[in-house]
Amino acid sequence: MRNYKTKAIIIKQFEVGEADRIISVFSRDFGLITLKARGVRKILAKLKGHLELLSCTQLEIHKSRSSLDTIIGAEAINPFKKIRQNLRSTSRLYLVLEFLNKILPEGESHPKIFDRLLYLLKSLDKNKNKERRIIVITYFCLQVLRELGYYPHFRECIKCQKDLKRGSNFFDFYGAGTVCRDCGERGAFISVSDQAIVFLRFLIENKNISLQKIKISPKVSFEAYALVERYLETTIDSELKSKKFVKLID
Ligand SMILES: [Zn+2]
């Protein structure tokens, strides 16, 4: 029996029984973990303020041999209040969390993805502009896909390997890449504009870019985001439930 500490982002939580609470976190050291906050009201009340959804918190955890590990201490490092208060423009974040929850195995550490998620939260917390937020989220998703080995290609045709010519290109979700007009056919793949291809290529190929400087029309950034969202669903082989929620409040 030992206690351990880790920095974690609270991604899901629900009440069980009288006062107990099950909390899913994405931790820097242990990846996704499911924890319990014990029902003693006084203790929970003290912890509660530090365990809000989306906040980044330093956790102290008691290791259990038989059931879920228990949170015994929590101190919020960054509560990201503005994100929680502004659901309308941050709803897509829930889609991202749902994706991470599905694709990452429990207990597998991914510090690079943790750092990227923390950066994403910081960017969303200070960026009010909706178009900017779409760019930041699209970039995050692409870099996570890259980190996990689901790299989508936007450079040459994945069928004939020739460089893409301008106009009438497609994207093949199952082949994870662009298809040229000679190899593709409408109906089998989705059309993708030249501008979106250039934009997506830039975002996937560069690991550390300053997103503030990017100038792109909202039409192109939304097209790129929609493609990435559908590609996320292809990789987990199911629909993201949060899509309905995004549609509802968008
Ligand atoms: Zn081709």
Helix/strand/pairing class, anyone?
Answer: alpha+beta
Q: End-to-end distance, in Å?
A: 47 Å
Strand content: 15-25%
Q: What's the CATH superfamily of the largest domain, by name?
A: Recombination protein O, C-terminal domain
Q: What is the gist of this entry?
A:
It is built from 8 helices and 8 strands, in the order E-E-E-H-E-E-H-H-H-H-E-E-E-H-H-H.
Question: Explain this structure to me?
Answer:
The protein is an alpha+beta fold and 250 residues long. It folds into 2 domains: 3-79, Nucleic acid-binding proteins (OB fold (Dihydrolipoamide Acetyltransferase, E2P), Beta Barrel), CATH 2.40.50.140; 82-249, Recombination protein O, C-terminal domain (de novo design (two linked rop proteins)). It contains 8 helices and 8 strands, in the order βββαββααααβββααα. The strands form 2 sheets. Strands 1-2-3-5-4 form a 5-stranded mixed barrel. Residues 157, 159-160, 162, 180, 182-183 line the site of zinc ion.
Give the tags.
OB fold (Dihydrolipoamide Acetyltransferase, E2P); five-stranded mixed barrel; 8 strands; three-stranded antiparallel β-sheet; 250 residues; alpha+beta; 8 helices; de novo design (two linked rop proteins); binds zinc ion
